[in-house]
Structure formats: C-alpha cells, structure tokens
Amino acid sequence: MQDKTFNIIISGVGGQGVITMLSLIDEAVFIDGYDVKSSELHGLSQRGGSVLAHVRLGKKVYSPLVQDGRADLIIGLELLEGLRVLNFANKDTAVLVNKYIFPVLGGLPQKEIVKKLNESFTKKMHIIEASDICKAKLQNEVVGAIYLLGYAVGKNLIPIKKESILKAIENIVPEKYRELNIKAFNLAYGDN
Amino acid sequence: MKKILLGNEAIVQGALEAGVDFVSGYPGCPSAEIGDEFLKIAKENGVYAEWSTNEKVALEAAIGASFSGLKSLVNMKSFGINVCSDSLLPLAYTGTKAPMVIVVADDPSCWSSAQSEQDSRGYAYLSHIPVLEPSDPQECRDFTKLGFEISEKFNIPVILMTTTRVSHQKMPVEFNKTNSKPQKIGEFIKNPHQFSTMPPRVLEMKKELLEKLEKIKAYAQISKINKISKNPGSEKFGIAASGVAYLHTLEALKELDLDIPILKINLFYPLADKTIASFIKKLKKVLVVEELEGYLEKEIKIIAKDNGLNLQIFGKDLLPKTGELNTEEVILALSEILKLKIENSKFNLPASRQELKIPRRTARLCEGCPYWHIFPVIKRIAPEGAIFGGDIGCNMIAGLAPHSMHDYLFSMGASLGISHGVKKSVSPDGPKVISLMGDGTFFHAGIPALINAVYNKSNPLVVILDNRITAMTGHQQNPGMGKTGMDENTEELKIEEIAKACGVKHIKVLDPVNTKEFEDTIKEFLDKDEVSLIICKRICKLLEKRQNSPSQIISPD
Ligand SMILES: Cc1ncc(C[n+]2csc(CCOP(=O)(O)OP(=O)(O)O)c2C)c(N)n1
Q: Which chain A residues touch B401 with a CB distance below 8 Å?
C-alpha cells in the first residue's frame, strides 16, 4: 500500500447493498493490517433514497470523508447514482457503474445516462451489467454489488488482495449467503 | 482486541466495559443502533434495556435506576434532548447516585432529520451538564468509559454528544473483551435531601452544581482531557477543533503539508479555560473549527479577553454555520488566514453536481406499504381547501411528490397540536383540518395533543397510520404492539381505547385496503362538530415480510 490514502465512493439506492460492500472493504483492509475509515448513512429514511458511502484506506487515515474530485475509485450500484457522484471524480478516477436502473420520478432514460457517463472526463469508465449477469448466472441480482467488487479486485482497481476480501466475506456475511457471495465475487474476478 | 466498529457499536462496547446495568432510550437516526444493539445483547450481558415511550420517560427511567444504584445509559437523537429537557435540568441539580451517560446524536446537514438542524451542545449551557465530544469510533468507546468515570467521580450525569459522521463512522477500534455479569439488583435508599428539588433546597443544589463544575474543570485540566498536539512555537498560529471537524482539520493540514499546533477540545463543557488560555497565549492567530454554532469560538474570545490576550480569532467568519464541515472547507479557511494559494479541486472540477442536473431521489413509500391505500384516498375525499397537518415518521412521505399533501410539519405529535390551533382560529364553516400521525408518534407525544383538542372543543379529523410498529427509524417496538423492546410479551395498548378515554366520541378502526369504508368514514367524520379519529390499521409491509420469514435478513441500508 502506498503512502497516499486511497479514496473510494460507493453509491446506490437503499437496499442495494452499499453498506455490505463498505463493510467488506473495511474488514478486508483491516485484515491486511492497514488503517481504514468509512462513513455511511443509515436508516429507513434512506429507503428508496440515494445511499452514499465513503471509504478511505492507507497507512493512517484521518477524515472519514472523501473530498470532491479526490476519489480513486467510484463504484455505482445504479446508473443514475453512479452519475450523481461524479463530482468526486477526476480524470484519473476509475469509475465502475452497474448497468442497472431504479426508475426515479423525472429521471433520465437509461441511454442518456450511459451516454453522459461515457462522455464524462474520467478516462477509466467501466459500465458493467453486474446485476444482469448475476441474475442470469446465479439467479440472484442483489449480489451484483459483490460482482462489482470482484471486478475491481480482479482489474487491480482497488489495492486489496483477493484473499482478504474472501476472508472478509467469511467474517461478515451470514453463512447461508456466503457461498452465493463468493460465487458472485469469483465470477467477476475470473472474467478478468 | 481490535475490530472494525461503527461509532454507535463502539458506544455500546464502552458502556459494557464500564459495567452498565440499565439502558433506556427512544429511537431516531443517527442514534438508533445503540438501543437496537443493547436490546439484542442485554440479557446475556446482565443489562436491563428498554425502548421507552419517549425521551423524557427514558431519561426518567434512568434517573430511577441511578437513584437505585444502577449504572445507566440513555440514548436518543438530537430532538430527544428537547423532549427530555424538563427532567434534564433538575437532574443536574440532584446529581446522580450511580453514574449515568446520556448519548445525544446530532445530525448536521439533516441527513435523516426534518424539524431543525439543531446543535445540541447548547444544552450544556442551559443544563450545566458536562458534554464530551468524540471524533471517531475509538473515542466513542473511550469517551463512553470516560463519561462513566466523570459521572461516578462527581455524581453528575455526562452527555456524550455525537453527530451522524461520528455515530455512523467505522474504523478499527481497540477494546477489552467483557465477561457476562449477572443482572445487578439495585436498592433505593431514601434520600430526599439529594433527590427532591423542593425549595429552598433547589437553590442550594444550584450552588453545589456550580461548585461541582469548577472541580470538573480543574480535573479536566489536570487529567488533560483536552489534547494539545504540540506546543505553539514560532508559527504563532494555532487551531482549536472539536468533534469530527478535528479529523477534517488533520486531513487539511496533511494535504497542505503544514505542521500547526492543534488543541483538540474533547470536553466541550465545562470548558477548561486555563488549558485554552495557555494554548492561545503564545499565538497571534487562532482558527476555531467546529460544526454548526460558533460556541467554542465565542468562549475562546471571552477567555482571550479575560486573560488580556490580543490575538485574532477566526471561526464562523470563515466556516459555515449550517451543514456539516468537510476537509475542503477547512483548507479554504486555512488558506485564507495563511494567504496560501491553493488549487482547490472544488473549483476546477470538470463536472459539478449542478451541471449534471440529476433529479433527487427522495425517500418513497415501499412497495406494498399500507400508506399507498391511505394518502391518495384522503387527498381525493377531502374537500377543496382542506388543511393537512403532517407528522414525523414514514408518513412524512405524504409531504413529498406525488402526494404533496402537507401544509405543516413540525415535531412528533405536533400535527395535532397545530391542527387544533388552526381549527380554533378559522371560521367554524372554514376549511376542514386533517392530521396524519403514526402509531409510534401517537404514544410518544400525540396523546396530550388529543386531550387538548377534545378538552378545548375543536374538531380536526385525526388519521392514525397504525402500521403496527415504529417504522421509519428501523422497526422498533412500541406500546401498541404487545411486545417490549426485548421482545417480551406485554400489555397491548389499544389506540382506540386510549382515544375513547380521552373523550373522543367518533372513533373508527379500519383496514385501509377497504377503500369504500375508509372513504365513507372520512366523509362522515369531516362533518362532526367534535374531534374524530380514524385508525388505519395495517401492518408495515417490511415487518410482515420479516415476520413471515424471520431468518431473512432485510438489508439495513
Ligand atoms: C423527539 C424525537 N425523537 C425521535 C425522532 C426520530 N423519529 C423520526 S421518525 C420516528 C418514527 C415514528 O414512528 P411512527 O409514528 O410509528 O411512524 P411510522 O414511521 O411507522 O410511519 C422517530 C421516532 C424524532 N424525530 N423526534
């Protein structure tokens, strides 16, 4: 791990698994022996609303919040929510967005969001059909979040070892969902 | 041992290490996980825990426990301290017998709050109760223990003040494992001299309280509760910071590659003025970094003046008074004072939120929510010009599109209190007034408002949205459910029976999916000259799902 703090933004819609992903990253970084701070917003007040989480990792982390334009990695679990957090990106930020849409009143059509994402200034835009792939191959679209994490680790977009994430899944995910989560992770990791 | 903990989990851990016996509270965001967690682990840890009916009775329960010799912890969100303040002030006078920590969680930026963006630290001045301000989960654990220590040493309750970014922050936290203990049986030893505030004793108590605070101040100075990173040297510039803003300050200094002395204020009240004076006396400039109100800044200005110090004190002139702080804002303030040229990412971003024009995704009713059967029907049936009083809870969503039916929204139970006032003020043939209120809110603060409307003869229509739980804050039990917070069976209080006892003559309990019955009742009740009340009883869809498959985990986010 480099000296510089690594900044991650995770966004999605309530119930999509933003907090689970954040917990897995926190735990994996902790297993690797580095410092980590994260910030999440809870509560049913978030149901159906936007959920935004910040994770920062490194040798020593102070603030739990990522500054505008300073994310190293953005993971959007939904298209519009991915677009919404681009204020955290700079041209070198890797942006990973699930090609999946939760309709919203007055929202943009899918095509337009994808176009806007692709036209954005970030050079490393990955739009992936994570939920659809998980639905087709694992009969469960909710693990799309874990698929994206597998993708990020496989492509070295995040400075965490595969083994640490697997261990984190073991520590955190309830036993009955563990295998499904590992499958989703490996599915994306192996595809790389 | 060390483990990743959420700020709220770390508070629970700290309290367990301190040997807490009695936990009471009322749920709200961002404090709810404290009570939720305690209710889960209470039995195995020899702790009694409850969700009380509101924050005032929660505090009073803990006062009873303290007077009986039990260590207690009370948990609530910011607004809870408003509700319990009437008993909070005398508690400072009587003091505690066994130690007590009161956790109050503020929500700068109102991530999960309507009502107001209150800075609850102000209650320190009003109540004379010590306030500790942790910055991160490690301090949440440490300061909870410290709070119990201070409380025990000085027989005074201690408030642990967090914010959303502290309560919902995660990091590796160092702690000691605790062993389960048997539930402690307390003993109430009569001592009206201490426990009763009857005058003239009350004024004596106030004097004792003020003396206590001086001792706590001295203790804070000696035991160095507030931390100085390094003594000011040639730079002549220093920073005083508190809460999560301290962490943003460290981040800002790291980014600007500056090494500036920082005084971290952990005990907001009583403020250790000697520590502050000794820190600022060598400085020419000081920046005070705190969220929301400029309380510390004002205090520090007074300390400077009292000590005849001539220095420039910056704070709310450079930092916002509204919204949570972040690193960028601290960087900007620092660069202003130090005349630094910085390239701030905020101002040369290729895409800003505004440019993207993304529609807000506000909270909405869940699929299958019983309220889908309620809001549209009321809206359709209510005559032109009807006035709608909104209340707190998932039913707040009635105020958002597509429903958009709130004419006012205040605090828990206020829909009815205000509706009564409106009804009393407008012409008797004027607009119909309808209040919407959740079942949890009815028990929390709705009942006195209902009594007032009946007693003082107005006639709003009250619609109780009885979804069989306190839903918005994450599904906590309430007195209408026949279950306690620890999931034990208890008396199931019936809202209709309470309403009847309050003198309401027109009461109907119905299932809102029976639209026709609901419509007819609204029409009938709107013509009444007295208060009328409809209880729409249908279980929250998420709760129903959970009850049908208890093993299924419903994602907490
Ligand atoms: C004094 C105070 N305490 C706590 C809260 C937090 N709070 C927000 S919504 C809510 C739940 C209300 O429950 P209920 O009335 O049953 O409505 P529901 O969410 O089920 O619709 C609570 C407790 C608050 N706003 N004010």
A: 105
A34: in domain: yes
Could you state, in order of their start, the residue ranges of all structural domains in chain B?
2-223, 227-356, 371-545
Residue among B77, B392, B410 whose CB has most ligand 1 atoms within 8 A, to mutate: B392
**pTM for the whole structure:** 0.96
Q: Do B251 and A62 touch (CB under 8 A)?
A: yes
Q: Which domain, by its residues, includes A120? A: 6-191
Q: CB contact, 8 Å: A115 with chain B?
A: no
Q: What ipTM, to 2 d.p.?
A: 0.96
Residue B552 has pLDDT above 70, yes or no: no
φ/ψ region of A92 (left if φ > 0, alpha if ψ in -120 to 50, else beta) reads alpha
pLDDT mean over A164-177: 96
Q: What is the tally of structural domains in chain A?
A: 1
Query: Pairing relation of β-strands B72-77 and B100-106?
Result: parallel
Task: Name the residue in chain A with its Cα closest to that of B324.
Answer: A65
**CA nearest to A172, candidates A22, A38, A57:** A22
Question: A182 in helix, strand or coil?
Answer: helix
Of the residues B361, B396, B546, the best mutation for testing chain A's interface (the one with the most A CB atoms within 10 Å of its CB) is: B361
CATH ID of B371-545, from 3.20.20.480, 3.40.50.300, 3.40.50.970, 3.10.20.600: 3.40.50.970
Q: Distance between CA B141 and CA B248 in Å, rounded?
A: 20
Q: Taking CB atoms and an 8 Å limit, are B555 and A20 in contact across chains?
A: yes
User: With respect to CATH, is domain B2-223 assigned 3.40.50.970?
Assistant: yes
Q: Nearest residue CA, atom 26 of ligand 1? A: B79
